[in-house]
Amino acid sequence: MAITAQMVKALREKTGVGMMDCKKALAESAGDEEKAIKYLREKGLAKAAKKAGRATSEGLVGTYTHSNGKLVAMVELKCETDFVAKAEQFIQLSKDLAMQVAATNPVCVKPEDLPQDLLEKEKEIYKQQAIAEGKPENIAEKIVEGRVNKYYKEVCLLEQPFIKDDKKTIKDLLNDTIAVLGENMQIGRFARINLAEAAADESEAE
Question: What is the bridge-based pairing of β-strands 58-65 and 165-169?
Answer without folding.
Answer: unpaired
